[in-house]
Design goal:
The protein is an alpha+beta fold. It has six helices and 26 strands.
Length: 461
């Protein structure tokens, strides 16, 4: 009993002491007034760029009027990523420098393409000559007796003996003598008959390629020649020789073939997609491996109207003059270009005098579509589809999708395109997870239904 009373008295004393302490602390402790918290200085927001308020791809580093006619609105540094428009992505400047992003302006300029191909030198078909005789006879003497022999115009090639030629000359001399003997007092019919025979034999000699000079020599010498000499019709080279000394030559039979090499043809193959860039009359630059350092010039004369289905190329014919070599003797001069030589040909074609172009590295071609990445500034990029034309001088012609003055990425564009695709895929997946129905979420009528809950295992108490 005494112990319980003692505990109660102790508790009362402790409580009284605590109350007294609180009272003294409140009334006798000097309070120090607290200074009001200083207001934080308002941080100035940095403007990165200005954009069109209508959401068009129109950006500027300076305030002013947008293309839509309204004032640009500022985009601040702290909202750059959230300010990207549809299809745009934001990359920090640190990452841009790390992956080595480079960009160039979309330009408007003349666009040319140099078509390079290999050609073969060949004869000019218009300067090929066949030497034959118009009278039956025998090759009595052959002056040009080897293939590849170069000849000059008018040079004798062979002598043809023909009994018919001899008899015709004798007939001509007889008609000439008869006309002289008749004189002025002869009957008109006799004079007319003699003139008719004289004209007929003279015309026959001309038809056999007997020249007027040879006929005049026949009249002067009053002695028929035994043979007919065939002369070269052009300066050139003998490319075929069928004549053999002593052989019988029939009328129209080809005895020699001569090619004039003062002009040659070049045959080149052009790929199918390059055909629209090649025109008749176009100049070409030609180099020959046999003459390093020298440049020749040719002209496109004809584009053949068919295609090689195996190589998908069209044959193009070019013409060029064949420069002479130093004289080889007897007035014969060789030619620089030999038929059968290979030549390197360069054709410069104008794709467009005023084309919208981008560097070829800026275009990403997937096979199904071609895209470029716009550099919008301040770390913003956008992948857009373009329609490309032909390529020339390291640039692609842009038929639609870009405007001169825009910037396109030319380096690290694969990385940006990959990041854009990743973000697009991620957003699509998140959208399906949060806002679109999942598989198995429709009933038989096509209406939405709740996903059945999985029953939990009943646990006992």
């Amino acid at each position: 009993m005494k112990r319980g009373v003692t505990i109660v008295v102790a508790i009362i004393l402790i409580a009284s002491g605590a109350l007294v302490g609180i009272y003294l602390d409140r009334h006798y402790t000097k309070t120090v007034p607290q200074a009001p918290p200083a207001k934080e200085a308002k941080k100035e927001r940095k403007i990165l760029y200005y954009k069109c308020p209508m959401g068009l791809p129109d950006y500027s580093q300076q305030p002013g009027k947008a293309q839509c006619g309204m004032d640009y609105i500022p985009v601040y540094e702290d909202e750059a990523e959230t300010a990207t428009g549809p299809g745009e992505i934001y990359i920090t400047q640190e990452k841009i420098q790390r992956i080595g992003v480079k960009s160039e302006d979309v330009k408007e300029r003349p666009l040319k393409k140099i078509i390079r191909t290999v050609a073969t030198v060949d004869y000019d078909e218009r300067t090929l000559f066949a030497v034959n005789t118009k009278i039956e006879g025998w090759v009595e003497k052959l002056y040009v007796n080897s293939t590849g022999r170069e000849v000059i115009k008018g040079e004798p090639l062979m002598d043809i003996y023909s009994p018919e030629l001899v008899s015709t000359q004798e007939e001509y001399l007889l008609a000439l003598e008869t006309r002289k003997r008749l004189g002025l007092g002869a009957l008109p019919d006799a004079i007319e008959g003699a003139e008719s025979i004289l004209d007929a034999t003279k015309r026959r000699l001309r038809n056999w390629d007997i020249s007027d000079a040879q006929i005049e020599a026949l009249e002067k010498n009053q002695k028929p020649t035994k043979t007919l000499t065939l002369h070269s019709p052009v300066e050139g080279v003998v490319i075929e020789k069928m004549a053999v000394q002593g052989m019988k030559a029939m009328q129209g039979e080809k005895l020699l073939s001569i090619a004039d090499l003062s002009n040659v043809w070049l045959y080149a193959n052009i790929y199918e997609y390059e055909i629209p860039l090649v025109k008749a009359g176009q100049k070409a630059r030609v180099t020959i491996n046999a003459y390093p350092g020298e440049t020749f010039y040719a002209t496109v004369s004809y584009i053949y109207p068919y295609l090689n289905t195996e190589t998908r190329t069209a044959k193009v014919r070019l013409e060029m003059a064949n420069p002479p070599l130093p004289p080889l003797g007897k007035g014969v001069s060789g030619r620089v270009l030999k038929p059968g030589m290979y030549a390197n040909v360069e054709l410069e074609s104008v794709i467009s005098p005023k084309a919208v172009v981008v560097p070829e590295d800026a275009v990403l071609d997937t096979g199904e579509r071609q895209v470029v990445i716009l550099a919008l500034g301040a770390g913003r990029f956008k992948v857009i589809d373009v329609k490309i034309g032909l390529k020339g001088e390291g640039y692609y012609q842009i038929l639609s999708g870009l405007t001169p003055g825009w910037k396109v990425v030319t380096s690290a564009n694969f990385l940006i395109d990959s990041e854009s695709s990743f973000r697009s895929t991620a957003q699509t997946m998140l959208g399906m997870e949060h806002g679109k129905p999942k598989e198995g979420m429709k009933d038989e009528g096509g209406k939405m239904k709740e996903k059945p809950s999985v029953p939990t295992e009943h646990k006992g108490h």
